[in-house]
Amino acid sequence: EITRIIQVDLDLKYKTNIRDLFDEFDNFPEGAVIGIAREMQPVYRHTFWQYRRENPQTKVGEPPPDGLPGFNSGVLLLNLEAMRQSKLYNQLLEPTMVQKLTEKYHFKGHLGDQDFFTMVGMEHPELFHVLDCTWNRQLCTWWRDHGYSDVFDQYFQCEGEVRIYHGNCNTPIPED
Predict the structure, then answer these.
(1) Where in the chain are the domains?
(2) DSSP calls for 122-170
(3) What are 80-111's pLDDT values in tens digits?
(4) pLDDT tens string 58-86
(5) Which of 34, 51, 92, 100 makes a 20 to 30 Å CA pair with 108?
C-alpha cells in the first residue's frame, strides 16, 4: 500500500522541513525510481580504478558536473510503486545482472546499497532523479588526506543553502 518512502541515515541534521524533501518526488523524470544525491568524495574514482585504466575516456568516477562520481545513499527517495512497475529495475536486481555489472566494472564494493545504486547508475542513469547536493551535504573529507587532494575539491563543492547535513565518516556536524 505504501507507494513512496524517504530512507535516511542517522548521521543527519535537518535545516529545513522534511516535507520539502518529500516534494522532490514531484520532480522525478519519467522512468526514475530513486532520488539520490551524488557522492561528494572521489571514492568511486578510486573504486573503479581498473575500469578507468582500461577506459581512459570514461566519465565513470569523474567529478561533476560532467562526470559520474557515483551516489551517496545517506538520503534516499524511493518511489516504491515505480520500482515495482519498472521491468528494467527489477531485472537489475537479478543476481546474474549484478554479476555482469560487477564484472564489467571490475567492481568490489563495500558500501552496500550505495555501491549497488552507483553501479546501476553508471549503466542506467535514467532510473535516478539526482538530488541537489544541498539535500545531502556530505561533510567527510577522508579522501582529501588519502591520495586525492589534487581533485578532492571538484567533488566536494556544493553551492546553495544546505538543507540536510550528513556527518558521514563520523564527521562533526556544524552547530547552528
Answers:
(1) 3-164
(2) HH-GGGEEEEPGGGSEE---GGGGTT-TTTHHHHH---S--SEEE-GGG
(3) 999 999 999 999 999 999 999 999 999 887 77
(4) 999 999 999 999 999 999 999 999 999 99
(5) 34
What CA–CA distance (Å, rounded) separates 139 from 168? 6
Is the previous residue joined to 65 through a cis bond, with omega within 30 degrees of 0?
yes
Give the chain's radius of gyration (CA, Å): 16
- Closest to 49 in 3D by CA, of 37, 40, 62: 62
The helix (H) or strand (E) run that includes residue 97 is helix 95-105
In the chain, the amino acid numbered 168 is: N
**Is residue 24 classed as helix, strand or coil in its secondary structure?**
helix
Round to whole Å and give the CA distance between 132 and 17: 16
